[in-house]
Design brief:
It contains five helices and 20 strands. By secondary structure, the chain is an alpha+beta fold. Strands 1, 2, 3, 4, 5, 6 and 7 form a seven-stranded mixed β-sheet that branches. It has a four-stranded antiparallel β-sheet with strand order 11-12-13-14, with no helix packed on it. Helix 3 packs across helix 5.
Length: 306
């Protein structure tokens, strides 16, 4: 395992803890996630303001810098108010003097009502280009453009896919006792743009994303016991997919999105069942004397860990 691979894995593990960190945050407040002490020296990266549409380029560059800095893997070099487009000549000696090992430059424009960002990542140490790309998003999605640019830079510098344009789901509890309210929140990976997708005065736990990111499965206690629901985020439509006798918990999506593996106590002890989402049929897949729970699929869908 090389240094950058180690860094990127540690960053993703940290991101996985966001739902726990967020439980005590007010819904109206910004969710701030700070990663410190990544374990080794951070990579010095320069991200000047992007050219083209100056205001747009500055807005997107700020998102990119915050994304990269938030991983704890990169040291963002101070570029003051410097603007650099992706097709401008790179003065490798000058950037080396500033302390940069890598440089990301871009041009942001609004053709046809969309946002287009042309990006280049340069290796200052080896004096070459690591890659170019073009990011296109809807015209009101400057922050999404920034996240996608950060994904590209992250991939070029670490060899691992970026995660900044993904989303997180977490449960927010407000109040205590009989007045407590629970909200299932979906937000950008950096905690910005939080949107409540379900609210109730009983606990909500274990949100799990469908493979295509269009749905969430989660456990709600709204029926005075744990029941597993599936909810389509675009429409808000939701349905109970596991409401059997006893406890229904720990949903995990199959890689193809066609079924959930869940923990049910319908026959006594807690065991794992596979639920076909098209039919609702539940098939028992473990039969042990202990408690089987918290299933997770292998990437190829051939194995289940629990």
């Amino acid at each position: 395992m090389n240094l950058l691979t180690f860094f990127s894995r540690k960053a993703r593990a940290t991101l996985a803890l966001i739902s726990l960190i967020a439980l005590a945050a007010p819904v109206s407040a910004q969710l701030n996630i700070e990663v410190v002490g990544a374990g080794m020296q951070r990579i010095p990266v320069a991200v000047p303001n992007f050219g083209g549409d100056d205001a747009l380029g500055r807005e997107i560059a700020i998102v990119v810098r915050n994304d990269l800095a938030g991983t704890g893997l990169f040291n963002i070099i101070n570029t003051d108010t410097l603007v650099a487009e992706e097709n401008s000549a790179v003065d490798f000696n000058a950037w080396r003097t500033r302390g940069a090992d890598a440089l990301a430059t871009a041009t942001a424009t609004r053709p046809g009502g969309q946002i287009e960002v042309r990006v280049r990542v340069a290796d200052i140490v080896k004096r070459g280009t690591l890659g170019n790309t073009v990011v296109t998003v809807p015209g009101n999605s400057a922050r999404l453009a920034g996240h996608k640019v950060a994904d590209f830079i992250y991939q070029k510098l670490t060899g691992q896919p970026g995660y900044f344009s993904s989303r997180i789901a977490y449960v927010l509890k407000q109040g205590n006792g009989p007045t407590a309210q629970y909200q299932l929140i979906v937000a950008d990976a950096d905690g910005q743009n939080p949107v409540p997708v379900f609210k109730y005065n009983q606990p909500i736990i274990s949100p799990a994303w469908s493979p295509d990111g269009s749905k969430l499965a989660y456990v709600s206690f709204e029926k005075s016991k744990p029941v597993i629901f599936e909810q389509t985020l675009k429409t808000g439509a939701r349905r109970a997919v596991a409401s059997f006798r006893g406890s229904n918990s720990a949903p995990a999506w199959s890689p193809d999105g066609s079924r959930l593996v869940v923990a049910l106590s319908r026959e006594g002890g807690t065991q794992l069942y596979s639920i076909a989402l098209a039919t609702g049929q539940a098939t028992r897949i473990t039969n042990t004397s202990g408690i089987d729970t918290e299933p997770a699929f292998s990437r190829d869908g051939q194995w289940i860990y629990f």
